[in-house]
Design goal:
- The protein has one domain.
- The chain is built from 4 helices and no strands.
- The longest helix is centred in the middle third of the chain and has 16 residues.
- It starts with a helix and ends with a helix.
């Protein structure tokens, strides 16, 4: 997998962790599945926790959906990726 393809893949899966909108991260089983895939591919691409969280923050700033508490969402992401990246 090329670096560019790996980045696109984990970013898409990261968005899926939010149900491709602003739903709470990895709560629904399908969202959790996509979030796990994002972590798996991000790890292969050498992504750090900081980079993953920055991407999550960037995603939330542009995602369509109901208003969300970004800090709460990032705390949820941080907890989810803890020990995985």
């Amino acid at each position: 997998m090329t670096e560019k393809l790996a980045k696109a893949s984990w970013q898409k899966s990261l968005a899926g962790g939010f149900a491709f909108m602003t739903a709470p991260f990895a709560v629904h089983p399908y969202d959790k599945q996509r979030a796990n895939e994002a972590v798996r591919v991000a790890k292969l691409a050498g992504v750090t926790q900081t980079q993953f969280l920055e991407e999550a923050s960037d995603y939330l700033s542009t995602a369509m959906g109901w208003p969300t508490d970004v800090e709460e969402q990032l705390a949820r992401v941080r907890k989810f990726i803890s020990g995985k990246l």
